[in-house]
Design brief:
With 375 residues, the protein is of the alpha+beta class. The protein has 10 helices and 17 strands. It has a single domain, classed as Chorismate synthase, AroC fold (4-Layer Sandwich), CATH 3.60.150. Helix content is 33%, strand content 21%. Strand 1 and strand 2 form a beta hairpin. It is globular.
Length: 375
């Protein structure tokens, strides 16, 4: 069974909903964990007033009994406190950088509201819900994920190499940054952007630890794990670029300084690398090293000092619409992308190990890991 899902709902509609299919039976769902993940999505210095209104919590509608999955489709609802979609006024001036104008042209609409309600990043709360369920499943195989901010505007963090340290430091930071000094400077940059009526983007990194070798495939283009991870992150609103491992730096180095030499540990009977320039992926397949991805998020399109636009009715010049919005959402974008990666890894694990129940899937996994030791 493949994992697949759909989301539905508008930013100011009654609720967001999602249906997830392909989660094996017998998986114990931690509702508090899912709600905590939703809370993580809403945090971060520079978020807008909507975050103070909504207190996202899930309502499980189907697919679960006694706290465990049944193997049938799981349906979830997240209610919106601010659900005044029917009373909101029409908008006729599209925002540069948003889906507004492209959506108007696509759907032959005269009201930007009909576009932005679904194009809004509010929809990603449903995706984080799906990603949280995927994370619960992945934890059964000791797979963990984290995201942290590398840059906001022109401010960049220092690097550290320990997964647990990155996770601990980033969770304590107001911008999910591991460098205290850089975190303070990032907050200052965001404050300056607020004063100017402007917005800021940045770069975040995702690290996935514990993925076994052999997830994904090179046999067909759409089975490549790197391609599927890239697609999932690029689907997050605001993301404009992605790299895996050393990414674009590989274009400027010779092969001898790019590829990761292979070694074998006789004691543990396992292959390993001393570097991870490939970011844990070779030929579209996981190689057993940490999977490392970085993505660039553009500044939010809605600004307090808006850019020039056109009234789509009169065709006269007009300032773009000012909506309630974030000034910087890079930390939240990292959390959302983290969930998207969890979904893709969960898909790959299901395809590799099958099984209708979590216990059957784990048996298959254990047999595979033992077989690797015999190679």
């Amino acid at each position: 069974m493949h994992i697949r899902y759909l989301t539905a709902g508008e930013s100011h509609g009654k609720a967001l909903t999602c249906i997830i299919e392909g989660i094996p039976s017998g998986l114990k769902l931690d509702i508090d964990l899912i709600n905590r993940e939703l809370a993580r999505r809403m945090k971060g210095f520079g978020r807008g007033k909507r975050m103070a209104i909504e207190k996202d919590r899930i309502d499980l509608l189907s697919g679960v009994k006694g706290g465990k999955t049944l193997g049938s489709p799981i349906s979830v609802m997240i209610g919106n406190k601010d659900h005044k979609i029917e009373s909101l006024h029409p908008i006729t001036s599209p925002r540069p950088g948003h889906a507004d104008l492209a959506g108007l042209l696509k759907f032959a609409s005269k009201d930007v509201r009909e576009i932005l309600e679904r194009a809004s990043a509010r929809e990603t709360a449903a995706r984080v819900t799906v990603g949280s369920i995927a994370k619960i499943m992945l934890a059964e195989f000791n797979i963990d994920l984290l995201s942290h901010v590398i840059t906001i505007g022109k401010i960049k963090t220092k690097k550290t190499t320990t997964f647990s340290r990155i996770k601990a430091l980033s969770e304590r930071s107001p911008v999910r940054c591991i460098d205290h000094k850089a975190s303070s400077l990032m907050c200052r940059e965001i404050k300056n952007a607020i004063k100017k009526g402007d917005t800021l983007g940045g770069i975040f990194e995702i690290i996935i630890k514990g993925v076994p070798p052999g997830i994904g495939s090179y046999t067909q283009w759409d089975a490549r794990l790197d391609g599927n991870l890239a697609k999932s992150i690029m689907s997050v609103p605001g993301v404009k670029g992605i790299e895996i491992g050393i990414g674009f730096d590989a274009a400027f180095k010779p092969g001898s300084l790019t590829h990761d030499a292979i070694y074998f540990n006789k004691r543990s009977h396992a292959f390993y690398r001393k570097s991870n320039n490939a970011g844990g992926l070779e030929g579209g397949v996981s190689n057993g090293e940490d999977i490392i991805l970085r993505a660039a998020m553009k500044p939010i399109a809605t600004m307090k000092k808006p850019l020039n636009s056109i009234d789509i009715i009169t065709k006269k010049s007009k300032k773009a619409q000012i909506e309630r919005a974030d000034v910087c959402a890079v930390p939240a974008c990292g959390v959302i992308s983290e969930s998207m990666c969890a979904i893709e890894i969960a898909k790959g694990m299901r395809e590799k190990f099958g099984g209708d129940s979590i216990s059957e899937m784990k048996r298959n996994y254990k047999m595979y890991m033992k077989a690797l030791k015999r190679m």
